[in-house]
Design a protein that fits this description.
globular; single chain; alpha/beta; 14 helices; 8-stranded mixed sheet
């Protein structure tokens, strides 16, 4: 049996988000393929001592947690690298003795973990989930302006760093010049690239993300495209009848998701009969939610629903005709697009990043100019006015466009065994 240690930034039975549910389902599928899985993750529990270790079980999976309460850091380096967490990880490596380490995400853990595994000659796989390795703010979107960083610019990074420091660091460590901040940004990048040299294989869920990380400096030979696997219902989703075209957004209600573009687009479509519902948890500034609530009050076609449990997704899509994904950031392989396709639901998405890759314009959905509410409104109007287009796009979607969780687990197991036999 192949022993695999999985590193997640968060993991547990109490997490109901789609990504967290997907992670647990993946481990179940790996268990079926003769993998013994163990999880190393972080928790943030103020009732426990910092760095204390707890162990819990989720089904057959044993989970080891290191308590990491994010407080005011004494240095910027402590926001991404933590030697105490690396020591806890090293101790678990000795105890579990894995054949493979799979890094799913290093946030809340430590960017030094790949080097720790390499010192013990343990091969490792890393999932490229977002831009956290490149960008200390995670999504290459500037926090104060929501401007997308198309390229990595250390000058812009230094400006962004000031916001991060004000939020997470003690006052005595904020008084730095722009030149000092650029040096800190460069130090972080050099450290991370040095750690990534220890990783044997990188798995990217989109070709866009793969190519972007290769341009950033990862060896092309190490980076493989492998889309995520998804749960495919045994029976198709049946749409409930409606005389009105029903649009929906499904995801976190944050500025980088571009949710505000939807009410802005509706103001360009007065009198057009449609319904649009915003599903998801609010994770942005209070003022952002207030703006969405105000927009809903001003337009009876717009509705704010709130979070949805993963178990409700299929039922939800029976009442959605078109999914809207207006993200400001690039995305990679959006869960909501795959869920929409399984439910035979076309997608209107921003024309960049992983969304451009997974939405075939005019075939499985429509693309609009990123950040442009007028362009989004045009796409929405086209869909409402053209019933034949809606039917054509719906026919082009389906589960055949999506990799199943089982197939993904099998391909992942093949990667594990190929590395284990070489070590």
């Amino acid at each position: 049996m192949l022993r695999v240690l999985h590193c997640f930034h968060q993991f547990g039975a109490k997490l109901i988000g789609g990504v967290e549910q997907s992670a647990r389902t993946l481990l179940e599928e790996l268990e079926k393929r003769n993998c013994r899985n163990r999880v190393f993750s972080a928790k943030s529990d103020r009732s426990l001592p910092q760095y204390s270790i707890t162990t819990e079980r989720w089904g057959e999976i044993e989970c080891t947690y290191v308590n990491n309460v994010v407080a005011r850091a004494s240095s910027f380096e402590l926001l991404y690298r933590d030697l105490s967490i690396e020591a806890a990880f090293d101790k678990l490596l000795c105890e579990f003795d894995p054949h493979i380490v799979h890094f799913h995400h290093l946030s809340r853990l430590s960017t030094g973990l790949p080097g720790v595994a390499a010192k013990r000659s343990i091969p490792s796989v890393m999932k490229l989930a977002d831009f956290k390795l490149q960008c200390h703010y995670a999504n290459r979107v500037q926090p104060n302006t929501n401007e997308l960083c198309e390229e990595i610019d250390h000058g812009k990074c230094a400006d962004c760093l000031e916001t991060v420091m004000n939020r997470f660091m003690s006052n005595e460590n904020k008084l730095l010049t722009p030149q000092d901040r650029q040096k800190i940004v460069k130090f972080r990048e050099d450290h991370i690239k040095a750690q990534l040299d220890f990783v044997d294989v990188f798995l990217s869920p989109s070709r866009f993300l793969r190519d972007d990380f290769v341009s950033w400096g990862l060896p092309k030979s190490k980076v493989r495209y492998l889309d995520n696997g998804f749960n495919i219902p045994s029976s198709p989703v049946l749409k409930s009848p409606s005389s009105t075209v029903r649009f929906a957004f499904l995801g976190r209600l944050t500025p980088i998701k571009g949710v505000h573009l939807i009410p802005e687009a509706l103001t360009q479509l007065p009198g057009l009969q449609l319904r649009c519902t915003l599903y998801g948890p609010h994770e942005g500034p209070i003022s952002y939610r207030e703006g969405l609530v105000s927009a809903c009050n001003a337009d009876s076609r717009l509705h704010l629903h709130g979070p949805v449990a993963p178990s409700e997704i299929s039922r939800l899509f029976s009442e959605i005709d078109i999914l809207i994904l207006p993200s400001i950031w690039y995305e990679n392989s959006p869960l909501s697009i795959h869920e929409a396709y399984v439910a035979k639901t076309p997608v209107i998405a921003a024309d960049h990043g992983g969304m451009r890759e997974y939405v075939a314009d005019g075939h499985t959905g429509l693309l609009f100019s990123p950040g442009d509410a007028k362009s989004l409104a045009s796409a929405m109007k086209r869909v409402v006015k053209d019933a034949n287009l809606r039917k054509t796009m719906e026919s082009a979607t389906g589960a055949q466009l999506v990799s199943s969780k089982g197939l993904f687990a099998q391909k992942l197991t093949d990667v594990y065994y190929s590395l284990a036999t070489k070590s």
